[in-house]
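Give me structure tokens for this 326-residue protein.
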Amino acid sequence: MRAFVTGGTGFIGANVVRALLARGFKVRALVRPNSDRSNLKGLAIELVHGDVRDFPSVKRGIEGCQLVFHVAAMYSFWVRPRRLLYEVNVDGTRNVLQAALELGVERVVYTSSVAALGLREDGQPADEDTPVNPKVIIGDYKRSKYLAQEVALAYAKKGLPVVIVNPTFPVGPYDIKPTPTGQVIVDFLNRRMPAYLDTGMNVVAASDVAEGHLLAAEKGRVGEKYILGGENLTMRELLETLSGITGLPAPRVRLPYHPILALSYLNAAWCRLAGGTPRMTPDTVRMSRHYMFFSPRKAVEELGLPQTPAEEALRRAVDWFRARKP
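Here you go.
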């Protein structure tokens, strides 16, 4: 069976490609002509040049494939021009799903995000059914992922056999950019984190997320969402875990919210004028006020999602980042 993967050069996509190959699938990956292909080096896969924003190249890539894994997305809290987030995350998703519908594929797995889900006001772990208020979504990234998920749900109603997966905060190998989550680990390893913001997240092994994609294709119910998550940790707990793994000291200073928010707006204004990317954007500071705790129970019970301990997931990430360091 042949599987088509978008975003295969990226963090989650590279893990999905390897999981597919390990299961004996033939893999075709959509790659942009100027993309960094180091994550796919040496893999026995077929590469198709194209872009999710270009419908003809997407349809050409899907033709002859039975499964589609739409993993590609722009994961950043600082993109200029901002419209690129919507062109890639929303319009790109529509292109992939429309092509899959026209070609009659057997199953599509769309990689959404917990950024597209709601949070509980009491701080308890949210699930797939926690209501989302579109009016209070923070930032263009989260808004674009919410809108893209709505596109996927609409295509399910049209008859496309699409299953939605919502990864939490994956950590592990092949995070080459790195992602905002991986950047926390890199900053810790490089001793660039003298203090931290009080927040919380759900940490999951990238290998579990990849396996969750295949399980969703095999067992997932059409039109349903599945949180691919692991353990809920506060930022302090995450940093203490990294300290135990690496032997490096964890920062003890907790930054105050309002002064840091004000500084982030000043930094963002300067970056708009002078160019560059702010280390901490207003969106990321505002999001830190909410503990992003989630329950993967549905994916565990319905799909059999593995649950690698957070410490082991973080250890794998640390080992990979250290091995890459020149």
